Write the structure tokens for this entry.
Amino acid sequence: MNRYIISYLRPIYKDGVMVAIVGIDIDFQAFIDRLYANPPKGEHGMIMLCDATGSMEYSPEAPLGTPVAEKGIRLVDPPETVAEAGRTDDEMLRYSWDGQESIAGIRALRNRMNIIDLRQKPQIYSRTHRAMMQMGMGLIAVCIMASLLPIYMINRLSERLQRVIEAAKEVGEGNYDIKLYDTQLDDIGELSRNFQAMVGKVAASQGNLTYMSQHDVLTGLLNRMGLDKEIADWLREHPASHGALVSLDLDGFKFINDLHGHMAGDEALRTLARDLVENFGHEQIIGRNGGDEFVVFMKDAEPEVAQAAVKAFSNKKKSFTYDGETHSFSVSIGYTFYRGDGMPLSRLFHESDTALYAVKLRGRNHYRAYEPSMESLNRTSLGFNLETITKNLPTALLVSEAKPDGKILFVNKTMVEMLECRNIREFMEFTQEYAPNVVCPCDRERMTKMVWEQTVREPDRPHCMTYCVHTVKGRDKQVFAIWRQADNVNYGKVFYATLIDGHFMYEELASSDGSAEGCTPNRDS
């Protein structure tokens, strides 16, 4: 549609239960046009979407960008000050616009672009000055006509009017902390009170916008912009103090979404956010980096204290409740230390992320501190985490509780395809989430009996067997299964099984009972 659209989604709760979701779409370009496009002479300025240097403007008419110089706009400050100003609320940029001295407020976006609010200084004050001049001339006329009024009244009015003028200048420079305290029941008193109320509303709106730009709507924690600002501010104010940057993510988050739905995934993220605040404390800098990734910066923390806190959180049992059911989950954690040596924030994030990926490479649900040797790890190898491997393995994987009616805890893509299901949701509906239902009814009793006999006889070694499975499309398949029992920190004893389609094991199946088709169960291999 060649428009810039900003979309918001907001869950609405009543008595702790979500009852609605409100969606809002804002036409950003129309918003800008309505306020700032073709402004009358002496009115406001313009808002621009610019690159990181503040020298290129982007719009629906010029999506590839046009130099701001074509509009007669030139940055007076050094280009490197643009990035610094975009991270703070108390610095303005100096521009030249059509030869006029101008100033600009700037807010950095996550995509390395900036929103710039540009105003010509004469325009900022012209309207206020014009109104004040008109009022002053009116007052002079009144004073001339009422020449019998005492001179001290003129001085009194002038002082009150001067306070309003000074307050208007303060607001024009971005300072909203003004107090007029004029209680007189006259025009100047009315002007002062209305001006004070207007400034209060503008300040509140500015505060709300700042909060929304730096916080995550789902969890209430800081977002990446807020994290960067809070941590950078602390490092700048405490360059010699110690601390620790902790990066973590929720293991198997995609599986939670696929199995239980995105509402359950959102509840898992909210639960993890609450657990982080509860365990690390409100005084620490905690935020959601995006997706299922979270960050904790531990202020004034020595390495031993930080390591103990990370270990305690990693070992804590974690679960969330959705739709009346409780589900366990785990996290992977990587962390690094700030030792008061002036290490930049970008390097701290690099080290904690590297440690986190090293944990994923070793199977997740653990924690590791950054070590320089991790830099030599091949990033391609780090990319082959457990999720990637299980998704693309040609053999089917099935993990379930080690019980006669054990619930299914995990399946990979090949397992879903083996039962000819379109997705994991259909797989779970077809099996009713119980592992024995994967097996064809004709083989279920024999397979169950054999599994428990083998478990009792040799609980610590892998076992194998062949049996029949029934697909969602009504077909029967012979499979060859290798499985073993093991302990899991979240679920207790579980069965890990790999299944291979029978047509790949034709000779093995034939040697077992003389056929490779149909639903006739085979003996223990």
